Structures are given as C-alpha cells and as structure tokens.
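Onboarding guide, step 5: your first structure request.
Type a short instruction followed by the sequence, for example:

Predict the 3D structure of this protein.
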Amino acid sequence: MKYLILVVAFMATNCVLAQQTITGKVTDNFTQEPLEDVTVYFAQLEKGTITNSEGLFNLSGLPEGNQTIIFSILGFETVSKTINLPLKGTLNIALNSSAIEMEELIISTPFHRLQSDNVMKVERESMSALKQNGAVTLADGITSIAGVESISTGLSIGKPVIRGLSSNRVLVYAQGVRLENQQFGGEHGLGINGSGIESVEIIKGPASLLYGSDAIGGVLYINPERFAVQNTSSADFNTNYYSNTKGYSTNVGYKSSSDNFKFLFRGSLAEHSDYKTEDYRVTNTRFREQDFKAGLGYQKEGFKTDFRYNVNHSKLGLPEEIGEQSTAKTPLLPYQDLTNHIFSSKSKVFFNNSSLDVNLGYTYNDRKEFEEHHDEEEHDEAHEDEVLAAALHMKLKTANYNIKYNLPTLGKFETIVGVQGMHQINSNYGEEQLIPDATTNDFGILATSHIHFNKVDVQLGARYDNRNINVIDGLNKEFNSINAAIGAKTNLTEKVVARLNIASGFRAPNLAELTSFGSHEGTNRFEIGNTNLKNEQNFQADLALEYKNEHVEVFANGFYNSINNYIYLTPNGTFINEDPVFNYLQQNANLYGGEFGLHFHPHPLDWLHFESSFETVTGKQDNGDYLPLIPANSLTNTIRVEFDKKWINKSYAFVKLKNTFQQNNVSNFETPTGSYTLLSAGFGGDFTVFNNRLSLSVSGNNLTNKTYINHLSRLKGDGVFNIGRNINVGLSYKI
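The system replies with structure tokens like these:
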C-alpha cells in the first residue's frame, strides 16, 4: 500500500498539465439580464466560484482535458455542461427560470452527475432543509426522506432504515470513507453530528457494486460542507433551541480559500434533557454531544487533495423505565460514552483525458457503556466520584482505501476500474464482552461503465469481493462473492423519464452474528451467534417513473428485493440470567414496495407548492413469517409557500400532515402498532443585519401533542411514547 501512495505522489508532482483559466457570463434566457450569485462549480475538481453583479465569473488553476461544470441558482434550472480545457474565448450560459427546486450534483454515484442525468435514482436532501423541518439530530432528520426511517432509542440514538433494511445492511459513508462504529448493536447510533454537513444522499437497494459488503440494503452518503469559493473567506454562527427537551445545539465555523490552499473548521455543542410526552418525561433520554470538524485542501494544475478530520464525543443516556422526572442534562446509569475519530484524505491526479482517485480513511471508535451496580450504595458513591468502571469497553480501529482510475472516454463509453479494501481490528477492555477480539480484512475489485446512446443511457458493472474474519480464539472465516448491476434511463416521452435498475448484492455475516454469546444492557436479551452462517445474497429490480412539466411532477418508484440466506434473530424459548435467549438463523426472504408522490406548483402561483408522498414496504420470509423492524406505511402531505420581499429573502412557510398507518405485519416477537397522525408547521427566511445575512427558522412538530408509538422505537416494548410537541427556533448569522 505504501508503494502505491508513493507512486501517486510521484505522479502528482510530475504532472505536466498546463494551468488553465476560464471566464464566462451567465444570463437569464428570457430577459437577457445578467444573473448575480450563480454558483459555478467544477464537479470533479470540487472547486467553484459565484458570478458578480454583471453575471461574470473567472476561475484559474484548472487542468487540461474534459471537465464537467455546473451552473445553479434558486429559481432557475440547473445546467450541467462538459467542456474541454483549454477553452477558447468566453463561456456564455443562459439559464431558464423554474418553479421547482434547484437541482444538485449527486456525489455518491461513480459518474458525478445531476439527478436528471443519473441512471440510478438517488434521493438527496440538504442539511439546511432537514433543519427547517425541526430535526433534533441527523438520524431524526433523514426520516423525512421517502423510503427512509430510523430505529430509535429515544432522541439521541437512531439507525437508518432503507426500505425495511437496517444495521449492517445499510452502509454509511462520511467524508468519502465508510463509517465503522459498531453498528451491529441494536442501540448503536450513527455517531455523526449534523453540523458541518452539506447534504445527505440515499441509494435505495443493493450498492455492493460500488461499495462492497454491507451495502445490500442501500447507502447513506453524508457530504461534508464545501470549502469556500476561490479567494473568499466567511464565518458563521448557528444556534437552535428545542422547547420539548429544554435543549440546544450551537456551532461556529470559519473557512477560507486562496488560489491553491483552502481550509475550514467547525465546532459544535448540543445538550438535551429527557424528552417529554403529554403525560411524562422519558427518564434518561438526555444526552450531550461535542463535535469538531476540520478540513485542509490543496490544488494546483493537475493535482488536488484534501484532508478532513472529525472527532465526536457523546454521552447518551439509555432509557429503561419511567422514573425520575427532571430537566437535568447529565445522563443517569446506564449510559454510553462514545468517542469517534474520522480521518480521511481524497486525492485526484488529472491526466489529459483521464484521472486517478485515491481515497484513504481511518476511523477509531471508542465505545464505553456504564451500567448499574448491584450494590446501590456502592453505585451512588462511584457515580458521585466519577470513578465508575465501564462494564463494556470496545475499541474498533478501521483503515480503508478506495482507488479508482477513470479511463479516457472512448466514444460513448465512460469507464471506471478500481480496488477497495479494509483492515479492521476489534478489541475488548471491559469486564463484559459482547463479541471477541478479532481482525477483519476486505478486498474488492470492480469495473463499471456509463454508455451514452442517442435515446438511452446505460450503466453496467461487475465486482469481486473477499472478506476474512480472524477471531483471536482460533475461528477463521472467509467469504467471497461476485456481483453485477445493469441499469438504463430513457425518456419515454418528452415529459416522462423511466429508470430500470437490476442489481445483485451481498453481505457477509458480521462478527456479532457469528460469535456473540451474552446479555447486553441495551437489548434486554441473551444473544447466541452462529459460526455456520453464510453470505446473504440478494437480487433487486427497481423501476422508477417520473412525469414532469412546468407545474406538475409525479413519480412512482417500485422495487422487489429477493434475499437468499437472510440472517435473523429469533427466541428459542429459554432464559439465561432472566434474559430471553435469541439465536441467529437464516432463511430466504423477500421485500417489496415503493414510494409514490406528486409535487404541484400551479401557474401563476409559482410560490405555492403542494407535495404528497406515500411509502410502503412489506418483508416476509419464505415460511410466511413477516420480517422484524419493517416500518409502517405512511402518507405525507405538505403545503409550502416561498417568496422574496425587499426586507426578507428566501422566505418560506409550510404545514405538513403525516399519517402513519397500523403495522399489523409483525414478526413472531413483535407486537402490532396503531396508526397516528402528526401535524407540523414552520416558517423562516433571510434578513440583512449589519450588511450580513441572518437566517431565522421556526418549526413545530407534533403540534397537537399526540401520544403515539413508532413501530421502530426500541422503547415500544415498554409502552413508552415518542416525543410530544416540540418547538424549534433556529438562528444563523454569516459574516
């Protein structure tokens, strides 16, 4: 590996591509007037600027060859254009006005494109939009995306669920590298703070071709905030208050870019007391989170690189029963004490018509869990003196690499070949042990192509993977898999777009499923692993249809997912230490469903938007039993208005009604969940204060203070309600 890095460094320092400069002008296609503050962004270079009051822009330090450039501004259609540098003369771009949302670049797919140009349907949502909806945490925020839910333990712990699949079946990427944070545990959350995040992208369905094992259900791809545009600097301060938890979150950041160097940093702090229902506060759902993110980038001619670092420290209460009614913010026993470090580097070397990407990552997850002592007096003294020893203490260290070569374009073909790998060490230090000390090694090789025909875009590829798990006590398991994918996108008519994707995927059994033997404070069960487990292997077909004109958008996304050797937990009817015993078994399973919706913005009332979406998923084993933790069907209707005035910009107001239906299709150890309806509303906008932008947002969730239980709440078994009415007030000031 070190020799490869040296080769890349040598290539970078000896790249002889000449430095190029591009100038241009952006105008309104209807009025021919220049457009100010248009974002001009080179996708592959991750470098951009904005137009001035005359619609002009200038960017220097660009490499030769084909580059994709994006022009975007709210209220106009986003334009993606491929140009060949050096470019003769000035680039003139005319944008058409549009009442629909501004289209953004999709990063999680191999050929970075706008969603309208993608063969694979990818959901994308900006972090600012999630916060406008009043999301307390990132895991809470992503549940507003159709087809995405969260397995929650209070407010602080949430695990993403994509079309009924979760845990190690959903891969999480942050800062361009896979995030490993002991996600096998039912009460192990994301470990990612929402500050310093630009957007999230969701790939629904098997993405094993792009990412390897653990992407059988999909990928949650978290994009960090961008560096400042060339030769600019900015600082911002953000704060939010949450009425229900008497909590707050606040962060401050600064970023600056020159022609070649750029850097940013952001620090944040959040504290919440126990959340409140109509009748009581849920004891020990309180938590505290500290987060720091930093980035450093360098770019010159044919080479660019950036390094990012994130450390997150969280203290999360683990609720057990309704007890002390308090607004204190210090967690009681039991609680988790987590520290998660993410180091990542992304480098790209440009040649005349090809490029090499080298992404390296290292994550260090330090998990401590503190439990009640049997001697109450001893526990009280220990808690006061803060010398309590962790009952469970695990450290997970993961190094990974992702190297891809973008071949020169050959006619209609764009092709990428690459290798990926991971080296992971799990170590125990506490008095309890859930899983043994072990080392895991992954290696994968892939090739994928995008083919541009006159009326159809086709994307296809294949991949081979190997995983080796070596347990300290002698167990050694090896898993192999070959997977492929093919997809096509075409315009059935001028207004109707169809996407069909067929893919296979796999997931190797994780360490917990193979080797666990013991009880855990957070699960209330005794789990026994199974060393004879095989790969989960799936095959999914996904069909997406979309109709769009100036005032109406209608979409229908349907899927069928067949999984061989699905791994599941089931009780065997016995007890150990008063905990029910659960075994890991395998059986074939099928999931099917989809998301359907419309977006209506009538003329001439382009400021008025009506959105409606319905999502459904069903999961069953071959023996007829339903799969556990399948989200209930839901229908969401939103009315939203957007307008600009002299004294307020980018202003909005919305009312949302979400109907969640009964979930009676439950597994053998689940109970049904009743239906409920939640009302939300909010408003906000941008003001100019001391010549700088002040953004205000106010939102209210569960405004009727409904008592309800989400089917994916881990507190459901104890009859504990989800959060009641919550008012969120947010302020952001940019300098």
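Each response can be followed by summary notes, for example: The chain has two domains: 2-98, 125-734.
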